[in-house]
């Protein structure tokens, strides 16, 4: 719908009235947000999408509207966000390390799997060494996902971000 020509846009607006105008602006804004990828302040994108200056100076006001909530639920449903967030919290990457060839596969396995979260995938040997490939927690996406969750749940104390002190209670199984 964001690719409608001028005639099609006028026709759509005539059929759908104010709700159609809101829908067009929201879709335009959603498209701009995706294309921009956080480079431009949201207020400028809100104005570019056709909203008033009042909305652009207070984006929270726009986010509270029922039509915005419906658009977000349609395009970013909570179950999908939860699923993707969980993937980030458990993100893994592949690491490798070169061991001396004199170590047995079992010794290499014990060394690799003694590191928290690491699991041996395979060992490749040549004349001089043994290269172990293993999965390892990908801490950057995990950290970002945890930070995002704390922000969404308002777990950070009020004040500057430098002053954050988060207490996490860890249960040992």
What do you see in this structure?
The protein is an alpha+beta fold and 173 residues long. It folds into 2 domains: 6-76, no CATH class; 77-173. Helices cover 54% and strands 14% of the residues. It has helices at residues 6-36, 42-48, 53-57, 59-63, 66-75, 78-89, 105-113, 139-152, and strands spanning 92-100, 119-125, 129-137. It has a 3-stranded antiparallel β-sheet, with helices on one face. Helix 6 (78-89) crosses helix 8 (139-152). The chain is elongated and about 70 Å long. The protein starts with 5 loop residues before the first helix and ends in a 21-residue tail after the last helix.
Rg over C-alpha atoms, rounded to the nearest angstrom? 25 Å
Mean pLDDT: 81
Helix and strand run: HHHHHHEHEEH
| Strand percent estimate | 5-15%
How many β strands by DSSP? 3
State the distance separating the first and last CA atoms.
51 Å
